[in-house]
Amino acid sequence: MSTKSAEKRERQNEKRRMRNRAAKSAIRTSVKKFKAAIEAGDKATAETTMQRSFKLIDTAANKGILHRNTASRTKSRLHAHFNKMNAASAQ
User: Fold this and answer.
1) What is the pLDDT of residues 65-88, one digit of tens each?
2) Region (Disordered) spans which residues (predicted)?
3) How many domains does the chain have?
């Protein structure tokens, strides 16, 4: 880096990159916990982890970490898995 502004920009980019990575990691972890609860057939845990996942996904989409269509698609698929589990347990 040759200029002070370039060095500052590099620091800012690194900070933002780490923040974005942490947010995406939290989403992936939450989705994995949700899928594990679905596999186990635990409706209560699945519902709470689904709501947590939705909150994390919405927050990331609002901050520009995820595209809004990606967020919407992911939430739709999670909800479809939850509904499928509920339909299977109701029968």
Assistant:
1) 999 999 999 999 999 999 999 888
2) 1-28
3) 1
